[in-house]
Design goal:
Blueprint lengths: L1 E7 L6 E6 L1 H39 L5 H8 L2 H25 L5 E5 L3 E4 L8 E4 L3 E9 L2 E8 L15 H4 L2 E3 L5 E8 L7 H11 L8
Length: 214
């Protein structure tokens, strides 16, 4: 979701900026709102059909302790129902958010204070002071890039941090096998992938060398 990368490192108001491509973001929003309901309804229908099939099988076989046999075979049903409900909740929140939230003019901004990220699905943006960040990884696959921001222990409640407690942001935060939580910030560029060297240069400059690309 970037158009160009601009580095400003002199004078007042120094910052590193990744600009957004509003057209790409708008198309992504429209695509998600078209496809996500199909997935949610599909999961709900599967749960109903599965429950009916299991009930029919149990009663047709005339198994003793019918209720226990049904519970034994039907455990996937509530799992599918829960997932369907979760998907509908996500869709509802997205519609509410995008009805009032304009597409951000930038995807990421790095300043002396810390790292600012725009998570399009979240109502509020995320800000991480440098004390809350340990390193950043850049993953590039074709035109799709992802910034993996490694969070310091206790970053969620650290002073100055904002936006990490939003459900949409929590879904993008995963803990790896070393126990490090990383916020995944997807970036789609119609022109060129995210430059790892530029990001490394910016992080090192504005964090005083404390945070670099891993």
């Amino acid at each position: 979701m970037i158009e160009t990368v601009v580095m400003h490192m002199d004078g007042a108001g120094q910052e590193y900026v990744v600009k957004t491509d509003p057209g790409t973001v708008a198309r992504m929003r429209a695509s998600l709102l078209r496809t996500m309901p199909w997935s949610a309804w599909g999961t709900a229908i599967i749960s109903v059909l599965l429950g009916a099939a299991i009930a029919a099988m149990v009663f047709a076989l005339d198994l003793g302790g019918t209720e226990l046999w049904f519970l034994l075979f039907a455990w996937p049903v509530p799992v599918y129902l829960y997932d369907s409900k979760r998907q509908f909740t996500v869709i509802r929140r997205l519609k509410q958010t995008w009805a009032v939230k304009e597409i951000s003019p930038v995807a990421m901004r790095v300043t002396d204070e810390g790292l600012w990220c725009a998570i399009d699905a979240a109502p509020e943006d995320v800000f991480l002071p440098w004390a809350a960040v340990t390193n950043v990884q850049v993953k590039v696959r074709g035109r799709i890039s992802a910034l993996l921001v490694a969070l310091a222990p206790g970053a969620t409640t650290a002073p100055g941090v904002s936006g990490l407690d939003q459900p949409e942001v929590r879904r993008r935060t995963r803990r790896n096998w070393k126990g490090v939580s990383r916020l995944r910030v997807p970036v789609f560029s119609p022109r060129q992938p995210v430059s790892e060297s530029e990001i490394d240069q910016a992080l090192g400059h504005f964090s005083g060398g404390r945070v670099r690309v891993r």
